[in-house]
Prior knowledge:
About 70% of the residues lie in helices and about 5% in strands.
Amino acid sequence: xxxxxxxxxxxxxxxxxxxxxxxxxxxxxxxxFVIAIAASFELVNMYDKEKKIHIAMKIINAFLTILLMMSxxxxxxxxxxxxxxxxxxxxxxxxxxxxxxVAIISIFVIMMSIMVINPNYTVADVGKxxxxxxxxxxxxxxxxxxxxxxxxxxxxxxGITVLTDIFALVFGMALGKHKMxxxxxxxxxxxxxxxxxxxxxxxxxxxxxxxxxxxxxFHPQGSIHFFDGxxxxxxxxxxxxxxxxxxxxxxxxxxxxxxxxxxxKLKRTYGIKDYSQIFPGHGGILDRFDSLFFASSxxxxxxxxxxxxxxxxxxx
Length: 316
């Protein structure tokens, strides 16, 4: 426990400035690139438990993961104009045609071609690698885009996932009697899940609803509403604002728990305790950021839907 706490403090000390300080946005980009590559290797190394994977395939998998992540960021080029991804793509003259559709088709063709060329590479292997590429590529791309949309979105989402995780444990230990997923994650209970979501939903609702009161911390130019530049949230009635904030926060809390169970399901399937030992006491990238990764993709979908419905450009 002591090692876990120390690691958590060190991570917070490193990550908070990288995420929050605008001048360190490029450092954030590099951090996500490293996270994507490391998480890609974590998943493929997990597959080693069942069948030894050649290092060349692990490298190809990491490359295709980054390709998908970059294509997703490129799709939102209007809002991520200064990202390292777009700088690299423009230098390579790839920004005009690299879209998620192109990336997925390219990944499909490459995977199928390798299966034909390499007799040891089976249909089951294609499925494993495709899951790995989609999972890591989409989620890391979503986290990057949310940061460029505005640091408030990352802080809000991180708060939802952390509070859900902490209070699910607290309520589970105090009140837990009914197992939620006895095979996938034996320690999780319905009481813990509900308690964690109640606390996280309440906190998330307050963050959104009260954001104008402390928005100057992220926006020195003046007070704004949480969703300013996304949709007409400030024109909602008070009841409408509370309801929309409550519904979104509750849904993201549930999604964060689904992301946790998804990562646990994969570990159980391959008989491992942790994905790696990058973070002492916490495990690997996917052990630490599984909830945030999955919830970030759902949050991005929500914002994208609102953008398409209302047609408002996102602010900083």
